[in-house]
Automatic annotation (TrEMBL):
EC numbers on record: 3.4.23.1
Similarity comment text for this entry: Belongs to the peptidase A1 family.
One term of GO molecular function: aspartic-type endopeptidase activity
GO biological process: digestion; proteolysis
Secretion signal span: 1-16
Organism: Scophthalmus maximus (Turbot)
Protein name per its UniProtKB record: pepsin A
Amino acid sequence: MKWVFAVCAMVALSECLVQIPLEKGKTAREVLEEQGLWEEYRLKYPYNPMAKFDQRFAVGDQPMTNDADLAYYGVISIGTPPQSFKVIFDTGSSNLWVPSIYCNSAACNNHDKFNPSQSSTFRNNGRALTIQYGTGSMTGFLGYDTVMVGGLAVKNQVFGLSQSEAPFMQYMRADGILGLAYPRLSASGATPVFDNMMTEGLVNQDLFSVYLSPNSEQGSVVTFGDVDPNHYYGPITWIPLSNELYWQITVDSVTVNGQVVACNGGCQAIVDTGTSLIVGPQSSISNINRGVGATSQNGNYVVNCNSISQMPDLTFHIHGQQFTLPASAYVRQSQYYGCSTGFGNGGDNLWILGDVFIRQYYSIFNRAQNMVGLARAR
């Protein structure tokens, strides 16, 4: 399988798009459902999507969520000769880390591990790294090595080598995380991968873009340094960031059938590829679910699978534009648990526009202008 490719115009090499394909594999939830363990797991390790956005950890230890629904991952390599790893490209965190041979956690035993002794370019940083999860933590240390991302060689990139990992990671297909948020968010002061790409002049523009294919296992991509017109249509709406720490924007309101059901008067939302659902305050999420006809059952908001085509659209009003999600986009269908909505309860004020939203809207993360661009995904 080709994990890295470039799409080039005939005119010049500079027109190449540096892209990494993202695979859509089974989520941890689906694996646990197949094994009949999901209900036990859900109660033991509650879903905590807002953990990584706790402002107390904005500098220092970087919290990340226990998200059993993450499905998209791509392959990078680290070291000389290269050692390959599946990583989640996460716009909600800033560190790169992978499992190491020094980790004996169950989560490490069924994932690829980095072996520093097999890389001629590895250097030990000597600093410890702790990354807090909603249901545990990753501990390890920092090192430097060459990281290959989409054919781009990022030299002397600092990254984390895990020595222990939270239990839920053993059910995830991805080995580690590659964070794409701002450097102020990075644990232990580690410079993020994309910041080094910009500093070293490896990208044509100081931006990257994400396309998540809604229906197929393949077709999703992260594009570094450019925008791929093959993955969107219509105009791009450029939205200024309200906080240059995460990819945070202002949402004016959320409506169902023209009625405001959430964010009346405005709210803050983070565009996050590392969260699967749309997450908001519990009262607002309850209003949305009532508005679309969902009912609460055992921690899920369920709907009749036969009624999806009759369910209303959900519309986010952002920067004077409407971003609409049909029911086919926000309803999750499981062969084990029927149909439920992709809306999750989170913190008091902050929202997360996760993969449920990004699958509908091609997302551009512009560091040069500190903006997010959204356009209708193809």
